């Protein structure tokens, strides 16, 4: 299945839209979210081709995951290896396996902030939002707050429907790290979740223009533009990061989802009309 990013209106409701955004992202091999972001703890080296992992196809990601899996099998307690392996597994859609890796790492490193943060994100990716929130909050140090953890907590709250609380935390994260594109991107996706696509787009454009913005941020912008029906513009933005075929596949998939949602809305209207009559 093709993917565009998030790393979250025309016509979408919040929860289906988030799932759609995540599906688009995974299909193209672009890391939401949540969260939607550059929030994955543990960096991953670029492939031999020189392309970043975020720009790889699903097949390429599987190859990277296989190589990291071999390294992990030799050193399962090595923090850096576990973080990289879990990150790639999440990006390739193997959320349960990524969670298993991070659960073991959390046992091996029970007080490590990076590990606890990654464990929380793995829980969130598996839909276990309350335990994820606990893990991320446990990783935070109130006297020395980490903006990444603040943003991660906000993304989880967004998933739980606590959008106002999430946006307060995004604001706090931006106070700690002004202009950070991954936080701005997450904030943009928060507005997408509540159907405010104009504010979402404005926030995404600010994120995409910020120094350090990566492929995932720009793909999130393409997603938001496409959700407003401006498919040609969305494809043009996506083509800056992906191959023309991938960009076209993303837009075609998005068109299909929008058409499905329209059809579903029409059916609901017809059903309501019948009941009224």
TrEMBL record:
Keyword Transcription: no
PANTHER family: PROTEIN O-MANNOSYL-TRANSFERASE TMTC2 (PTHR44216)
Gene3D superfamilies in alphabetical order: Tetratricopeptide repeat domain (1.25.40.10)
Gene Ontology biological-process entries: protein O-linked glycosylation via mannose
Leader peptide range in chain numbering: 1-31
InterPro entries recorded: TMTC_O-mannosyltransferase, TPR-like_helical_dom_sf, UCP035836
Record keyword Thylakoid present: no
An example Gene Ontology molecular-function term: mannosyltransferase activity
UniProt keyword list: Signal
Name of the protein in its database record: Tetratricopeptide repeat protein
